[in-house]
Amino acid sequence: MKAGSFNAITPPLDSPRMRDFLNRCLGLKWKEGTAHEHQVRDILDEMEIVYEYQPNGSQMFPDFNIPSRWGTIQLECKSSQRANPTYNSGRPHVGGLYVFCSKKYDQTTIYYGDDVLTLEKRAVYDEYLAEQKALLEKYQARADWKDDRGFDFYNREMYTQIGGAQYTDYFTHKDRKLCEDNVFRSFN
């Protein structure tokens, strides 16, 4: 039920309906990209949950804004052939609710962005990015940076995970249940 206005939410999204939605998401099989978003959207529609699809445009976080008594739920759909998603040009968002399906397991898991990337690690990334930006600006100020073809350079963030399955596999990771439980607990 695409939202025209968030002023009147009928029926209200209460704890039992939200837990039912989450359980239905956990039961999803693998679909790639937009097809995964559409299967999540179909559940929202079937359950008559109000949402706004791609509120910031395609390729931008989140895929869905869901108004609720807990505030606006920012829901992002991720899919991968592997056991972990790729975060192109943006790390997992603090407070962002992720529904991730994997072809490798033909399963879906749910988690919050801040449960897979700590605030401390974000601070380290922020420090690095600030230094990287300053270095780029230093080079862009040089006279020999400009050429008669207009070539330039920009830094693009890309977040990956390394260290083997014990760190990177969202389905066998020791904290999978904890991450899923954190999502359910937040909707009591």
What keywords describe this structure?
alpha+beta; single chain; 188 residues; 5-stranded mixed β-sheet; globular
Describe the structure in your own words.
It is built from 6 helices and 7 strands, in the order ααββββββααβαα. It has 188 residues and is α+β, with helices and mostly antiparallel strands. The protein has a single domain (15-118, 158-185), classed as Trna Endonuclease, Chain: A, domain 1 (3-Layer(aba) Sandwich), CATH 3.40.1350. A hairpin with a 6-residue loop joins strand 2 (64-66) and strand 3 (73-80). The model has no long low-confidence stretch (mean pLDDT 92).
Give Rg in angstroms. 19 Å
Q: Detail the poorly predicted runs.
A: none
Average residue pLDDT: 92
Task: Tell me the overall shape.
Answer: globular
What is the domain total for the residues?
1
Write the layout of secondary structure elements.
Elements: H1 15-26, H2 33-46, E1 52-53, E2 64-66, E3 73-80, E4 87-88, E5 97-102, E6 107-112, H3 113-116, H4 119-140, E7 158-159, H5 165-168, H6 176-185
Parallel strand pairs: 3-5
Antiparallel strand pairs: 1-2, 2-3, 4-7, 5-6
